[in-house]
Every structure is written in C-alpha cells, then in structure tokens.
Specification:
Distance between the termini: 83 Å
Oligomer: single chain
Strand content: under 5%
Amino acid sequence: MTATGELERGRQCFQRRAWADAYAALSAAAARSPLDPEDLERLATAARLVGQDAACADALERAHHAFLAGGDGPAAARCAFWLGFGLLQQGDTARGSGWLARAERVLADGPPGTVLHAYLGIPAALAAVGRGEFADAHDRFAAVAEAGERHGDSGLVMLARHGQGRALIRMGEIERGAALLDEAMVGVTTSPDISPVFAGIVYCSVIEACHEIFDLRRAGEWTDALTRWCAAQPGLVPYRGQCLIHRAQILQFHGAWADAAGEADAACDRLADPPGQPALGLAYYQRAELHRLRGEARPAEEAYHQAAVHGRDPQPGLALLRLAEGNVEAARAAVQRALDETRERGARLRLLAARVEIALPHDQEAARAACEELAAIAEVFPAPYARAVSAHAAGALRLADGDAAGALSLLRDARAVWQELDAPYDAARAGVLIGQACWRLGDHDGAATHWDAAEAVFRELGAMPDLAGLPRPDRQAREQAPRGLTRRELEVLRLVAAGRTNREIAEALVISEHTVARHVQNMFTKLGVTSRTAAAATSRSTSSSRRV
C-alpha cells in the first residue's frame, strides 16, 4: 500500500476508534514520509490508547515543533499540554512539568483566557489534591469546569466535574461528591465527541472513587458502562486492564469467584504488556485475594509479593493470610504498620476490619479501639457496605466479650445488609457468628441451621479455609474420636493415615507446619502411640468400628 493509502486508512480507523489499526497504519505512513502535525496528533492519540507511551510522546513532540514552525502557537501549546499531562500520569514529574511550562510560555504570546489556559488548570488542581489541599483543589476544578462550559468543551467540563466530586468526597461531603461523579459519568457516556483519553480517565477514576466510598452498587453500574465503552474500541489498552480489575472486584463480591479469577488473571496479563502500567499491582492483589479465599496459600503469597513489587501495598490481604497460617503476631504487626501509614478514612476501613479479626479473641482492647473507629467511619460514609462492616466487627467483639444476645442483634443487621447487597460470602461469615451466638444462648437447633447454610455457601464458593474453620460443636460432639481427640486433631489423624506429610497437611488445612506438629504430638499422647504408622492403624480401627 502507498504512503497515501496507509495515511487515509489510518485516518479512517482513527475515526472509527479502531486504535490498534489506526496506530499501525499511521505508523506505516510516517515511516514512508513525514506526517502533517495534525496526523502526528492522531498518531500520538492512537499510540497512547494502545499503550505505546514512548511513541505517543515522540509524535507529540514532533507535532509541537511542526506547529511552532508553522506559526500555530495554540496548537503547539495543545501538544505540549498533552505531552506534559501524559508524562505526569506516568510518574515522570520533571519532564511533565517542563512540557506544561512550555505550554504556558507558548500561550503567553497569544490572547488570554483561551480554553487551553483552562486545560492548564487541571495539573494545578491535581497537585492540590496531592498536597491534601482538597478545598483548594475543588475551587480549581470548579474554575476549569466554568471555563470549559464557556468554551463549549464538554470533555474538559466532565473531567473537572469529576475532579470536584472526588475533592468533595475527600472533604467528607460524600453525597454532593457522588452526585458530581454521576454527572461526569452521564456526560462521558452520552457525549461521543469527548476525548477518549479524558473519558477513560473519568471512567476509571469514578469507579475507583465508588470503591473508596464503598458504594458497590454504583461501582457495579459504572463498571458495566466501562466494559461497554472498552468493547466499542478495538485495541484499547490503558483502560481495559482497569476494567477487568473492577469486574473482578464486583464478581468476587457477588460470589462469582471462578469468573472473578478469570478476570483478575486477564487483567494481570493485559497490564503486564506493555510494562509500566500502574494498575498492575492492583491486578495482582485481586488475584491474591481470590487465591487466599480459596485456601491456595502459595499462589496467594506469590501474588501478594507481585502486588508489592508493582506498587500496591499487600495489606490487609497478606496479614489475613498469615492469620490463616496461624502466625498471629506477623498478621498483627503487618496490619498495624499499614494502619499507621494510612490516613484516608475509606482506606482504613478494610484495614480496621482485618485488625478486629486478627485481635479476637485474645486482644479485646485492640479490637474495641478498631470497632470504635469503624463505627465513626460508618457515620461518615452513608453506603450500606460500611455499615455492614462496622456491625459485623462490633458483633464479633460482643461475642468475644460474652454478650451473645447483644452480638446477635448486630450480626443479624450485618447479615441483612450483606444479603441486600447480594454478597453471599460476607453473609455466610455473619451467619457463622450468628450460629455461635445462638449456641451460647442455648438455641442449638438455630445454631445448626445457620451453620448448615454457611457451610453450603462456603462449599459452593470453594472457600476452603472457612469450611475448615467452621465451628460445629453439634457435630463435634457426635464425631469426636476415641480418647478425646478434637475435631481438628481428627482431621490431622485422617490425613496422617492417608500418608500426608506435615507440610502437605498444613497446606490442606491452611495452617502452619508448627501447628500441625503440635496437633500430631497431642494426638500421639491421647492415642498412646509413638509413630505415624500406629496412629494410622488407630484411625483405620476407629473407622471400622464406626461402620459397624
């Protein structure tokens, strides 16, 4: 194909938002002959949207110089802005700031108050957010939105409105902030002329904000919209990976763990190539969480490690993995370190919930302090999710304090919210504690009913650690082995009889090898044996007598 044919094909693909084909055709045309600055801008946009950041920067730089040489200062400033803005997003602060300064200098030679002057207000507003000056950031975003409306630039308006919303949320004005997020999303979903770069930023940032305020219904709705937006643009790279992560989060919450694992794996693969995509750490964390919940300790630990390598703190997931392994002190220290470093209230909620789980039943004071802060956060965030987390933790604390009746009321409230939100795993975990409260109050039939229901959910999800840790004193009394073996010791005995090593038993039961060794020694003492072979023989004898 001739250079002219490649160029025309590239323009047509660009118009259809077929970004990979547009990038390939425009790159081929550029290799044959120099492109006009307008086509260089198209090449830069296509390169950015297929994840080729270096090619994007190169095309924008060439377009900038070509526009300057042709005397088109505003167009040159536009290219400098997009180049600087993109570099800032990639973490290249020095070069990004330099190009933004160049854009300002070029604009200084022209008339004031243009739409490009408004564009340059976006980095300044984002810098205010980074400094924690949220009121100032809100005012800066509001000024940009006003200028965008004055110049008829809907993309700029929606980006600024979303920035206002996130600033308001950080200021504690959740409802006002969420309303602005919705306004921004309605704008990007109904305005086809909005820059796909701005649209992608708004989509991902709004969904992230919904997770921060625990509004999972809103997050689910906008994740579906992002999925449709990505599907309509073949070859899109930068936002498709985030879309997969958000889908995995929502699917996990609603109990579709197998589908969530597939989305998390796909997100890891997509975000790994090209390298350097900032969301990769979150993708690995999501993969780790699903492994942990299913009792797959080794792949979970590896995925948490990869999350940390790629910039995502692996807490509280890794701390909960350590707790499942029986290493309470490591779990406590890790989650406390994360809490000490985290100030934002939304991010603290999940850490505090893990702190309660780790502290109980041995450190009620630490759990009580965490529950008090959870209650305060739930007052600020109106979303049902925050209320359910707080009620669940408070109910667990009441249960540990011996107040079964008080625990029951809180736990029933939590479970009702989880069921309303269609969160089967969380509802089942609340049901386990409700069963414990019923048992302590003498309602053994009620306890068995709740435990049976939770067990069914855990089996369907594949939540093996929860299955293994399910408290069933009703069954334990019937199934207890001769000579006083506990339920856990009986589980260990059966695995010993099957020829499993201590390491294999630890992996199967999601406990540490040290804990397995302790169970084995206690088992030997109770059975009056000194070898695994003799213990296995006792197990076979016990099984035979039960069949009789």
